[in-house]
Amino acid sequence: MKKILSLAAVAALILAMFSGCGKGYTAEINVCNWGEYIDETVLKDFEEQYNIKVNYSGFNSNEALYSTMKNGGSNYDVIIPSDYMISRLISEDMLEPLDYSNIPNWSLIGERYKGLEYDPTNSYSVPYMWGTVGIIYNTSVVTKPVTSWDALFDSDYSGQILMFDNPRDALGIALLHLGYSLNTTSEAELEEAYGLLVQQKPLLQAYVMDQIFDKLESGEAAIGPYYAGDFITMHENNPDLAFCIPEEGTNYFVDAMCIPKGSTKKEYAEKFINFMCSTEVCTKNMDVVGYASANTEALESYIADMDEDFAAIMAPSDDVLANTEVYTNLPQNVLEKYDELWVELKS
């Protein structure tokens, strides 16, 4: 859920892809992940170790990935969507079951990330990274204490507020602020959440996804919701930024590696998934992206060397996580309601 690939990174990946075409790889796989959500050196490490070329691309929302796959515009061998989207892909028979004999590093994945509601039998996905959503704000501008989602609806910060540019997260924040579940199927509760977003709209500077990096790091905007792992990297560029998990609770997410239905490189894809689960690779990835790995050994070793406050943001305690909720896949009529409300809000 993560920072979009920079133009330089995209150029480097494209150059690497074409320069590698003549190297005599035994196979190629196509991997699609959230933008800058990997240490790119591990891709080259995998290629050198297995002589398998990795063509890497990015997406900026679960819904965008789903749309591409649903419309037949992809030939991915490995994808890394979030929990609720994995559940949807499973329900629509869009994923291949995994052969765990090709993924022995599955044993390194923590038990707390296995058997979750989106894939209760662990048949289709291997957890990659996890984290929480919170409020990121500039302490030089936002001087009142930030403890609640209410800060995103405060008229004192009119023109300085950013909001998620996707319906599930935006409506989810409004639902939490109203005391409702992220996974409500109540049309009345969704309408009430929509009403709250309508009231917020005049206060906003913009609806954003990855644009939030430039806006908050530069000081162009002062406050917005985003992912804890990205806050850690953003803080490096602007030490005035702070992070809060609101008292009403928040979203806890798990992103996991899957193989789309119809992949003709399934065994190679499973090699890649296994490689990505190794402690060495998980540690490298955490160092670059700021998110917590599902490899318990790697995570515990990594946060042991971190500043205590940042470690608590990257990998919150059980007490904090007890006040979080994982998105689940919703019935089709509810998904359609989300789309309807979002179109109305953005029009």
List the helices and strands and how they pair.
Blueprint (H helix, E strand, L loop, with lengths): L6 H13 L7 E8 L6 H10 L1 E8 L2 H9 L7 E2 L3 H9 L34 E13 L22 E4 L2 H11 L9 H14 L3 E5 L3 H7 L4 E5 H10 L3 E4 L5 E8 L8 H11 L2 H11 L2 E2 L2 H9 L3 H7 L3 H4 L2 E2 L6 H15 L1
Parallel strand pairs: 1-2, 1-3, 5-6, 9-11
Antiparallel strand pairs: 4-7, 4-8, 4-9, 4-10
Helix pairs in contact: 5-6, 6-14, 10-11
Short description:
This protein folds into two domains: 7-129 and 253-315, Periplasmic binding protein-like II (D-Maltodextrin-Binding Protein, domain 2, 3-Layer(aba) Sandwich), CATH 3.40.190.10; 131-251 and 322-346, 3-Layer(aba) Sandwich (D-Maltodextrin-Binding Protein, domain 2), CATH 3.40.190. Residues 3-22 have low confidence and may be disordered. The chain has helices at 7-19, 41-50, 62-70, 83-91, 167-177, 187-200, 212-218, 228-237, 266-276, 279-289, 296-304, 308-314, 318-321, 332-346; strands spanning 27-34, 52-59, 78-79, 126-138, 161-164, 204-208, 223-227, 241-244, 250-257, 292-293, 324-325.
